[in-house]
Amino acid sequence: MGIPFGIFGLMFFPNLPESTDAPYLSKEEIQLAIDRLPPKKDWSHDISLKSLVKRLLAKPDIYIFTLYSVVACALEAIVLQGLFLLWMKANSEKFSSYATTTYPLGIQAVSIVSNVGAGYVIDMTNRRIPMVILAGALQLLVSVLLLIPNLSTAGTFFAFYLAGTSYIVNPILYGWASVISQRSGDDASRSITLYIMSMVQSVLYTFWGIALYPASDAPYWKKGYIAMIVVVFAFFGVTAAVHWVSTLVILSQSFTDFSIVGSKISKD
Prior knowledge:
By secondary structure, this protein is mainly α.
C-alpha cells in the first residue's frame, strides 16, 4: 500500500508555494498560499552546520517541542503498545482467534476519527487548548478505569477503545509546533525541529514499553496505568510551556513588524 502512495506523492506533491509548478493549482491559489505565510528570512534555507545549529539551540523552541513530543507520545502508550490485544490473549478462554484478530481494529478506527476530527476542529476554531484538555481528560479516565482490577469485560472494552482518542495529540503536537516555527520565517530550522520531534518518539519506545507495559504483566499493567496518570498532568504542564513559546513568538513578530512600519514612516 505504501508504494502507490509514495508514487502519488512524488508526482503530485506541490512543493513550496513560491516555487510550485503544480498544474492543478491556479495562480490565484498559489498567491493565496504565499500570502498566508509569514515573510521568509534571507537565511531561511541556510543549512550550513554552524548557522543551523546556532539558530536551533539559541531558542527555547527546540527544547520545549522535543519534550512535548516525548510526553505526547507517552500519552498514546496504551494504544501503541497493543495492550488490548495482549489483554485478550491473556483471557483467551473468552475470545476466539477471530475476535483477537478483529476486535482491536476498533481502536484504530477510533484513533483515525479522533485524529482527523481534532485536526478539523483545530482548523475551524484555530484553538488547541480545548483539544489538549479533551485528550488529557479522556486518557485520565481511561487510566482510572483500567486501574480497577476487577473491571468488567464491557468496561475494559470501553476503556481500551476510548484510549484510541489519545491520537488527538497528533494534530495538536505537529500542527502547533509547525505554526510556531513557521512564524520565525526559518524553514530549515522548522524542518529540523519537526524531524527531531519525530525521532525522539522512536527513542522513547526503545524502553518505555519494556519498562512500563511488558507483555509479562498482562492482563493488568498497574505501573503503566499509574505512569499514564502522571503523563496526563505532564502533558498539561508542557502545553503551558508551548503556549508561552507561542505567545513569545507572536510578540516578537509583532515587535518586528512595528519596527519595520516605524522605519518606513520615518523614511517617508
